[in-house]
Design goal:
heterodimer, A: two-stranded antiparallel ribbon, 8 helices, globular, B: mainly beta, eleven-stranded antiparallel beta sheet, 29 strands, elongated
């Protein structure tokens, strides 16, 4: 029995070390702590659920608190600093609107020469805000995927899918967010990629 | 910008894209008007705009007819060159043929100067103007090396003077660059053995295609203006290249080949998929040959990009202002290429094949240098590291120390 416990403690220590915990602590302590902490996948999913809840309740302050200190990548190759996002939230800019307000999102997109994708079924609708999407859909499903750690940073992605209505009617099929682990917490590093 | 190099009473003038826009031979000055890399009209000795000496009509890239005054001559080609000429009644007025490496085989009656590979044969030198260099048909080789480096994996390509790696029966080189067909696709063989990161400056010609016998065989090249980027940033489609204006005389030239353009680099990843670039990867050059499929060079704004996969096309402009083309595969993957103007020949909903030209790099969205931002998602909406699907794309080497 004691050998079994030692074996468990050994594997738990390895697991926690991979998860970014301090490996210098005694093995038994890590093993105990591990038992009370959610797995990394679970913690990422919990962060995603917190984000969705904050969006659904229009809690801008809480969403802002979940954004990485280095900001987010808003669209391709377009990093926006945390300070700029703070101001954007104050001014109801495009980042804020993408989370909470469809009408102002579309106003901003018009100014940016945005053109919805055209495919065989014609021109897709203009994107809606995350809040409107979440309020409209049913059968919401959240999945997470941890990515290989790079440059010492843990990161992962969260995909939000829904069953109905047709994804096309909302201008896309999924919402995809990327998170990075900062000081033990998962922080958002992308806006909602809606496609 | 005009290049001039003179010799023995004949001079040639080139525009900024390297196209030969003027020839002075004795008392005759001929100015060429181009659409893409194809001559569409010639004016002799300062003729008025409405009075070209010759006009050329094309079907795709194939020369279809020459209008000279009130006479129209129709041209009939094999996979390389014009072989027969007919008049407006369908009567044969002339025939011409070339040996496999370009030497004249026979001519009878009315011929055209568009000879081997439809290069213009210069009567003053007997050489063929092949856009990027000159082909000496009597020697069966080019006069100068291919501006594009060969590949160590294809030793024949290391002979940079040879016409299409000495396989003119199956291959064609319409630009004077090394063109290779791999069965389904033709592409410029750009395999530089030791490339440096970053764009190599562009300068490719425009609007030409290459042909392989059998199978799909089309690949466009669009001019990046010899270093001056083509502005195709709005609207998401490639504008039709306009006729180029001949440059004024400011020097003398004669028949000497132009300076080669720098070699094009293979696929270099400048931003890897990760927390600093969580949507996908950036590549400054695109060569998918050893990856999923296809092929094609990418250097500087306005250079062509081929689809890495076969699928259905959608296109638009995203919220950061980047034009994009996305290709949805039958397996549910969506490959999105950003900072890319859609080719005007690609319609939304159309099926494109791996290796088919889908657009050119443009200045849209946020970017400090020319690159393609590439994203891949699977059927579940999860992003995939595109580099894992493109083994030929390697991260840029980082300087040490």
């Amino acid at each position: 029995m004691s050998r079994l416990c030692l074996l468990f403690a050994f594997f738990a220590a390895i697991s926690c070390n991979l998860g970014g915990h301090d490996s210098r602590r005694p093995t038994s302590e890590v093993a105990t702590e591990k038992a009370s902490l959610p797995s990394d996948e679970d913690s990422l999913k919990a962060a995603a659920e917190q984000l969705i809840s904050a969006i659904e309740t229009s809690d801008a302050k809480r969403v802002l608190g979940m954004i990485s200190r280095k900001g987010i990548e808003f669209g391709a190759d377009n990093w926006v600093s945390y300070e700029a996002i703070e101001k954007d939230f104050q001014d109801r800019g495009i980042v804020y609107c993408e989370f909470f307000d469809t009408a102002c999102l579309r106003d901003h997109l018009r100014k940016r020469r945005f053109t919805p994708a055209r495919d065989i079924e014609g021109i897709r609708p203009w994107p809606a805000s995350c809040k409107e999407i979440l309020a409209t859909v049913s059968g919401l499903e959240i999945s997470t995927k941890r990515e290989p750690t790079k440059s010492g940073q843990e990161w992962g992605q969260v995909v939000v899918r829904w069953v109905s209505p047709s994804p096309r009617s909302l201008g896309g099929s999924f919402l995809n967010f990327a998170f990075v682990r900062e000081a033990g917490d998962w922080k958002l590093i992308t806006d909602a990629q809606h496609y | 910008m005009t290049q001039w190099r003179g010799r023995a009473g004949v001079s040639y003038g080139y525009d900024g894209a390297g196209l030969r826009v003027k020839k002075v031979a004795g008392a005759t000055t001929t100015r060429y008007i181009f659409s893409g890399v194809k001559v569409i009209a010639e004016y002799v000795n300062g003729a008025a705009v409405g009075s070209p000496a010759r006009e050329y009509i094309y079907s795709g890239s194939a020369l279809l007819a020459t209008i000279e005054g009130s006479t129209t001559t129709y041209h009939h080609q094999d996979h390389l060159s014009v072989r027969m000429n007919t008049d407006s009644n369908g009567a044969v007025v002339g025939q011409q043929g070339n040996y496999p490496f370009g030497e004249a085989w026979y001519t009878s009656s009315a011929t055209t100067k568009w000879r081997f590979t439809s290069y213009e044969r210069d009567s003053e030198s007997g050489n063929d103007y092949a856009n990027f260099r000159y082909h000496a048909n009597r020697l069966g080789r080019f006069l100068t090396p291919d501006p594009l480096a060969g590949r160590i994996t294809n030793p024949q390509s290391l002979n940079r003077y040879a016409y299409v790696i000495n396989d003119p029966i199956n291959l064609i080189d319409p630009l004077g660059l090394s063109v290779v067909c791999n069965g389904e696709v033709c592409y410029v063989d750009v395999g530089a053995p030791d490339p440096g990161p970053g764009p190599s400056g562009g300068g490719l010609g425009s609007g030409v295609d290459s042909h392989c016998p059998g199978g799909f065989n089309f690949l466009e090249y669009v001019c990046s203006g010899g270093g001056e980027p083509a502005d195709v940033g709005t609207g998401g489609t490639i504008p039709t290249p306009g006729p180029s204006d001949p440059e004024p005389d400011d020097g003398v030239d004669a028949g000497e080949p132009k300076e080669p353009v720098p070699p094009v680099s293979p696929c270099i990843i400048t931003s890897e998929f990760g927390p600093d670039h969580p949507r996908g990867i950036d590549v400054t050059t695109a060569d998918w040959r050893d990856g999923v499929a296809g092929g094609g060079p990418l250097a500087g704004y306005g250079t062509p990009v081929v689809s890495p996969v076969t699928g259905t096309v959608a296109s638009g402009t995203d919220k950061s202002g980047a034009n994009f083309v996305s290709v949805s595969t039958s397996g549910g993957q969506v490959w999105t290429l950003r900072h890319l103007a859609t080719s005007s020949s690609i319609a939304p909903g159309q099926t494109v094949h791996a290796g088919q030209s889908i657009g050119v790099t443009d200045r849209s969205g946020r970017q400090s240098n020319s690159h393609v931002h590439l994203e891949v998602t699977n059927a579940e909406g999860t992003r995939i590291d595109p580099a894992s699907l493109l083994p030929n794309c390697k991260p840029a080497r980082r300087r040490s120390g």
